[in-house]
Amino acid sequence: MNVRHSISVLVLFFFLVGSLPVLGHAADQNRQSLENLLADLEKKIKEADQRKVANPKFLEELRALVKQYRSTLRVVCVSEDLADGEYRNNPTWIVGSGRFQVTGARRLHSEVPVEPPAPPPSSERPSALGTIFKEILGPTTEEGKGRGTPSTPVEARIHTLADIGPNFEVDLTVVSRSSRGSMEVVLLGGAAQAIPLYRMVYQASPSSERPIQIIRERDGKSYLIDAASQYPSLDDGVPHRVQWIRTSQGQMRVLVDGKEALSTYENYYRSTFSGLALVNKGGTYEWGPITVLQAIEAKTQ
């Protein structure tokens, strides 16, 4: 039974691959049909993985091939696998602040210190004698730490310029080793100015108070579009697939490891975006591979 299931998955895959030369330049209906077949194949791969009826390495190779052939069906706006060990070419990434480096696992690494939360104020009331001595001696070292000019939060930001259509799918692998802080995936406008228009925010240690959020930027102000009702954690130090999708109907979704965490509708910005940014606002994160594609429409029954 296990062998039969593995063979059926393999046969289905090679049937799809063999169809690509014919359908690669076919009409949109044929493209959609092939995309639906690839989606079905992904489900079969997932089932085989859950039931442990095939070699994990073999299934991982199948996933990579499905992703490769799916990219031939749609417009690819950004494709970065960091195989060359650097981020300055093919495509060119521009560091706006902080530091980034490419790891041996071919991921873009960023680390930004997160300040610990301030201790709660003491509930003890000083005695009259204690108050007099405090005025004479001045504040203690601990009390003096909170005075002076407040520190500005540090962030690391990197972006690449590319024409990204209004119907998009950002598909990237994320590794987080954070317990505080947050990271953002940002769609840009304004060409060389790289102005944030939409931000997808992941907050480390997610919860109902720290959900994934979609935020629209306009005229220097931030507007919360929606927040996730599920709270998947990326903070276990292993790779997770994150997809941020908007269709032509304006449905915007965020999926983590194939499971929907957020679904909303947002159609304010309908022009072509000018690029993609990754922002670390505290914590340790890695990204890669990173792909931005033209979104496909939902499969209809």
Describe the structure.
The protein has about 300 residues and is an alpha+beta fold. It folds into two domains: about 1-75; about 75-110 and about 155-295, Exo-inulinase, domain 1 (Jelly Rolls), CATH 2.60.120.560. It has five helices and 15 strands. Strands 1, 3, 4, 6, 11, 12, 13 and 15 form an eight-stranded antiparallel beta sheet that branches. Strands 2-5-14-7-8-9-10 form a seven-stranded antiparallel beta sheet, with no helix packed on it. Helix 1 (about 1-25) runs antiparallel to helix 2. The longest helix has 24 residues, at about 30-50. The chain is globular and about 85 Å long.
- Structural category is alpha+beta
CATH third-level topology of the largest domain: Jelly Rolls
Looking at CATH, the homologous superfamily of the largest domain is: Exo-inulinase, domain 1
User: Which percent range fits the helix content?
Assistant: 25-40%
- How many structural domains can be distinguished in the coordinates? 2
Main CATH class of the largest domain: Mainly Beta
Short description:
It contains five helices and 15 strands.
Topology:
Elements: H1 2-23, H2 28-51, H3 56-71, E1 76-80, E2 94-97, E3 101-102, E4 108-112, H4 128-137, H5 141-144, E5 156-164, E6 168-176, E7 182-189, E8 195-203, E9 213-218, E10 221-227, E11 240-246, E12 251-256, E13 259-265, E14 273-280, E15 283-294
Helix pairs in contact: 1-2, 2-3
Task: Name a few traits of the molecule.
seven-stranded antiparallel sheet, 15 strands, 301 residues, alpha+beta, single chain, eight-stranded antiparallel sheet, Jelly Rolls, 5 helices
